């Protein structure tokens, strides 16, 4: 597992990734960032690492600050495989569900 960090005040920001050689991409496993600016800086680092290792893309699952990533030129793709599961046994959740920490788990 690899990654990058920004040690800041009052909070630090980091992303952790692994390499998906089948898809020729860096797969971000965890993104904990204090600001959109930190996320963009860390994403640029991941892109640089991807390019230097011959990979084509950097992939996030449900990243924070999605609008800022889109404004920076990121392509948003809705995933169709390996979706998480939610069970509402009481039927009282309605349709307003917010996914928290919905990030990729890598089997290593």
Commentary on this structure:
With 108 residues, the chain is of the alpha+beta class. 21% of the residues lie in helices and 22% in strands. The chain has two helices and four strands; from the N terminus they run βββαβα. The protein has helices spanning 36-52, 66-71; strands at 2-6, 13-20, 25-32, 57-59. A four-stranded mixed β-sheet has the order 1-2-3-4, with helices on one face. Strand 1 and strand 2 (13-20) form a beta hairpin. The radius of gyration is 15 Å and the shape is globular. The mean pLDDT is 81.
**End-to-end CA span:** 9 Å
Helix proportion range: 10-25%
Taken as a percent bin, the fraction of beta residues is: 15-25%
Structural class: alpha+beta
Q: In DSSP terms, counting alpha (H) and pi (I) runs of 4 or more, how many helices?
A: 2
Shape: globular
Radius of gyration: 15 Å
The chain-level mean pLDDT equals 81
The largest sheet has its strands arranged as: 1-2-3-4
- Point out poorly predicted stretches: none
Count all strands and give the number: 4
> Helices and strands, in N-to-C order?
EEEHEH
Note the main sheet. 4 strands, mixed
């Amino acid at each position: 597992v690899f990654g990058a960090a920004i040690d800041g005040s009052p909070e630090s920001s980091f992303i952790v990734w692994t390499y998906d050689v089948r898809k020729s991409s860096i797969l971000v496993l965890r993104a904990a960032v204090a600001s959109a600016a930190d996320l963009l800086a860390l994403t640029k680092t991941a892109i640089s690492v991807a390019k230097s290792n011959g990979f084509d893309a950097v992939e996030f699952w449900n990243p924070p600050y999605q609008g800022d990533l889109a404004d920076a030129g990121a392509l948003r793709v809705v995933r169709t495989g390996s979706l998480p599961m939610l069970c509402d046994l009481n039927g009282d959740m309605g349709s307003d569900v917010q996914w928290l920490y919905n990030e990729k788990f890598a089997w290593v």
